[in-house]
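Below is one protein, fold included:
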Amino acid sequence: MASNGLGKNIFSKISKERVVSAVVLVVVALASILPGGLILAGTLYLISMVGYLELTKACKVREKDSTKPNILEIAGLLAITGYYIQLYCTHSGEGSTTYLSTINYTMMDVGIMISLFLSLILLMFVYVFTFPKFTANQVMAAYFALVYAPVMLSFVFLTRQLTYGVYLVWMIFINSWISDTCAYLTGVMIGKHKLAPVLSPKKSIEGSIGGIVGSALVGGLFGYFLEVTIGLQQLIIPLAIVGGVGSVISQVGDLAASAIKRNYEIKDYGKLIPGHGGIMDRFDSVIFTAPITYFLIILFLK
């Protein structure tokens, strides 16, 4: 009986931690996304820096017992800083990336490509002039971590900077958090067939379908809400499609993050968020859905 009581207490503590952390995350999301601009860019920059270090540590870019970033990771942090500076300077005003303009697409594409190219050169510079301190695998992992978290997450900022982005940016979270919730509830109720039995035994095909359908429905309802409240037209079907497709990508992102943890035999990426783990544990699906949501919005709302 004492053992059961202890188990309940632990479960209760974890649940409270998760709820409190979730509330804090929602508050941070509202406080940064609603004003957008520099506040949002700065918040994403900080999250990206932490996520990058979590990934490089997980992928063994850093020495096993080291608690401080090495020179290769520092080069990556400098690259992330440069990327976010150019991103903000290029898209500092709301509507600066509008789905009615092709000029800004070109500016964005060129800026991102130049940043990615220079980032690779910087990492290779460290690799060459510190040889043989780092292996090629470590350099590739460092570059992978840079693109995976900071660059993909930056599409939250780009979506917010769209015309009507203050509303449309929430599709990213519908595609990730609403999808995850619907998938979980459906899986608990009727889940029988395993989706990825080796990688994630608890996930079911039924749950996956429930997540896709739930995200599509909420996306459509959100489109209807925007039509009624701010007068935008023909959003129900496009945002339902964005929700459904985004849910698929979200689930892939969640499984991909789990696969990396399995490969490197770690439970969580970090301990920054009580009850959730690290940045990468909480934002794994958001990281994947942000770019696809951005491009789908541009595709369907042009």
Remarks:
- Residues 99 and 301 are 7 Å apart (CA to CA).
- The longest strand covers residues 200-204.
- DSSP finds eleven helices and two strands in the chain.
